[in-house]
């Protein structure tokens, strides 16, 4: 699974010289776009796995290896998407529980 699309979410700075991060005011838009792309990719992999299963069931494909690879890719993508969703909800709940 390609996770290059979310690499821009993690910004690294040197620990010894703290400095404010420059933002262009569109960070939430980038996060939202990355989430949309991740969901679309997961959906595409799920559909591809279903197509491979149907091809195998109809006798159009005789290689079980391709079916298993497609299913595993879809499963890993779904697990990753669920993990990101869970982290997002956990961080949202943490922010909402902060006292001002």
Reconstruct the topology from this structure.
Elements (H helix, E strand, L loop, with lengths): L26 H32 L5 H33 L4
Helix pairs in contact: 1-2
Low-confidence stretches: none
- The percentage of residues in β strands lies in under 5%
Number of DSSP-assigned strands: 0
Quick one: overall form? elongated
What Rg, in angstroms, do the CA atoms define? 19 Å
Measure the end-to-end span: 40 Å
* Rounded average pLDDT: 83
Specify the helix fraction band.
55-70%
Number of helices: 2
Q: Please state the structural category.
A: mainly alpha
* Sequence of secondary-structure elements: HH
Largest sheet: none
Overview of this structure, please?
With 100 residues, this protein is mainly alpha-helical. It has a domain of 55 residues. It is built from two helices and no strands. The longest helix has 33 residues. The model has no long low-confidence stretch (mean pLDDT 83).
Offer a quick outline of the entry.
The protein has 100 residues and is mainly α.
Keywords:
single chain; 100 residues; mainly alpha; 2 helices; 65% helix; elongated
